[in-house]
Amino acid sequence: PKDLLALIYNSGRAPNDMGHYEACNRSPDNKYALLSISSLLPALPLSFYLGFCGSKICEADDYYGIMEMSREPLENAIRNVLHVNATNFLVFSAFIPSEFEVRYDSATWLCLIVIILLIGASTGGLIFRLLQSNKKRKLANNPTVVEGSSTLLIHDVGSVSYTHLTLPTIYAV
Q1: Which of the ends of the chain has fewer CB neighbours closer than 10 A, N or C?
Q2: pLDDT in tens, 28-46
Q3: Do 136 and 160 form a contact (C-beta atoms < 8 A)?
Q4: How far apart, in whole angstroms, are the C-alpha atoms of residue 86 and residue 42?
Q5: What backbone torsions phi and psi does residue 42 show, to the nearest 5 degrees?
Q6: Using an 8 Å Cβ cutoff, are 98 and 33 in contact?
Q7: pLDDT digits (tens, 9 = 90+) for 73-98
Q8: 14 pairs with which residues across the strands?
Q9: What integer pLDDT is reported at residue 173 of this predicted model?
């Protein structure tokens, strides 16, 4: 019973639930299988996978045979719901992977490097723009008046423009 619970726990329980591949294969008595069901009917665009943790003695043909036995009841139920007159519209497949191993070739590495460089460049550009806008904001909040000059520098806060005004010179008597 303990092994049965492990098989159930490590199997997928809903469409497109892959289950637990590594946990299933840790036991010397278990083997992971990937099952798929697809529909050939345009009215039923069905396609899903299910990870299944089964006995080590089962092969892909065994799982396929079990799915084939369920073809007639499944197709009858679908025909009754959709009111279609078709047969053999479900496609079954079973695959037992020996191991999932990710291998990166040179093109994959090149794409990853280009993506990382693009992300770095856009992040650097964003940081530069933030620093520049912060510098302009500081200038707007701290106007500078040059003593002894007859020109006043005015900064418009709503835009990025500066205006020079020439003031009349006032003489004290």
Answers
A1: C
A2: 888 899 889 888 888 778 8
A3: yes
A4: 11
A5: -65, -30
A6: no
A7: 888 888 888 888 888 888 888 888 87
A8: none
A9: 47
Q: How far apart are CA 93 and CA 134, in angstroms?
A: 60
Residue 169 neighbours by CB under 8 Å, 6+ apart: 150
Contacts of 14 (CB under 8 A, 6+ apart): none
Pairing of strands 161-166, 151-156: antiparallel
What's the token pair of residue 164? 């020079």
Please, which residues bridge with residue 164 across strands?
Answer: 153
Burial code of 36-59, b = ≥16 C-beta within 10 A, e = fewer?
ebebeeeebeeeebbbbbbeeebe
Q: Burial level of 91, CB count in 10 A (0-12/13-18/19+)? A: middle
Tokens of 50: 């299910």
Residue 118 vs residues 101, 108, 112: alpha-carbon distances, Å: 28, 15, 10
Task: Count how many Cα atoms sit within 13 Å of the Cα of residue 83 in the half-sphere of its side chain.
Answer: 0
Residue that is written with structure tokens 């665009």 in the block? 45
